[in-house]
Amino acid sequence: MVLKADDKKNNNNRPKPSRQADRPQSAPGTSPFAEKPGLDVRLAAAKILAAVVDKRTPLDGMLDAGHGNPAYKVLSDADRALTRAILNATLRHMPRIEAAIASLLDTPLPAGARALQHVLLIGAAQILYLDIPAHAAVDLAVEQANRDPRNRRFAKLVNAILRRLERERDVILEQSSKISPVPDWYRKRLDKAYGADDAFKIAEAQLTPAPIDLTVKADREVWAERLKAKILPTGSLRLAAFDGKIPSLDGFDEGAWWVQDAAAAIPAQLFGDIAGKRIADLCAAPGGKTAQLAAMGAKVVAIEQSANRTVRLRENLARLDLDVEILETDLFDYRPEELLDGVLLDAPCSSTGTTRRHPDVLWTKGISDIEKLAGLQARMLRHAVTLVRPGGLIVFSNCSLDPLEGEELVARLVAEDPSVERVSIRSGDWPGLEQAINAAGEFRTTPAMLPPGDGYAGGMDGFFACVLRRR
Hints:
Blueprint: H1 5-11, H2 39-55, H3 59-62, H4 70-73, H5 77-103, H6 114-129, H7 134-147, H8 155-167, H9 169-176, H10 184-194, H11 196-205, E1 213-216, H12 220-226, E2 230-231, E3 237-238, E4 257-259, H13 266-269, E5 278-281, H14 288-295, E6 299-304, H15 307-320, E7 325-328, E8 340-346, H16 361-364, H17 367-385, E9 388-398, H18 407-416, E10 420-423, E11 443-445, E12 463-470
Parallel strand pairs: 5-6, 5-8, 6-7, 8-9
Antiparallel strand pairs: 1-3, 1-4, 2-3, 9-12, 10-12, 11-12
């Protein structure tokens, strides 16, 4: 395993990496890497990246301040933020980073050299995609390699690869821009569902972090002016670039609004006028859609199975001062005494539409997960139908981009169950989102929709939503 020939001569004059094996151990209770500022961050990033891509461990849990990865928990707030930035950049661009590294090698890295691969990936992500001094990224990556007995013999290689990435950054970025930034299994799913051109646009859109969208209880125009926000076709308010904390914003303490992606604000609105009607939200936490239903005047029953998520649901609704009946129970056990006017089922899914916020999803999930979740959703949807009166509505939604969890699932239900009919959503009712209504009259949003403009970011989560009526 060597660098390609055109870089070998440049490697000879580079400084030799320092040996770290004989350094004294730190005193108990102190960081063993305190003498090398920034190294703790890179070590934590490499450990967490390994857990995501090799063990398919979700990122959010490892970045939890109280119960997360030990290497992350000991960091300062600033270092935690940097760790998150490095991980997000690496996961968003990983196929391109891997291709860039491979292009500099005569032979591939050994199949078992996963720890080395992780060091190179996070180092390259800093050089190619983050505003971090390249010399710091290189130096700390070499230090990482020297500290790990598995990687020490590759320290010079790490130095050479990353320095070459620094020198040829613009050319490498241009070449890699033609590579889809999503895993191959997912790219094939997107190609099949949307066609190669739209699939590439969707994949590109997930590289941009999601903006902050708000749903307001009332007085949309007033709050748009007060928050200097843009009103979207979904009725959501989109904030301009915002670096502060959400609770510091005007209107938070008084419960005037809540954070909710523009696409997630669509399903509740598909019921139409529900003032005074009895509606159940079957997977209610964290409560954004529940809050919408209540703010629209419905008599809402919120169903949530998880005890922890129920606590969060109660807290969110209390801040918003909305009156909702909350039941902590399995939705399959829920049987109302009187059939309902409507049910909202925003079902658990693969979450492939949320990769702007959760880039780890594409590395922790696969087609087998999608198939399993689609089966669960079908069971949930069939149960939801039994909860509404004849003529009652069922709004089914999820944040997956895969038709197996959306269009195909609903088509199969309608074909097999004569008690259910699809209610077409009219594109004319959604100016600015006409392209999101498919031929069957269902919503299908993607991250490539809602182009940026007027100083505001574009995009929205990938969402599927449809309306069914019980005959």
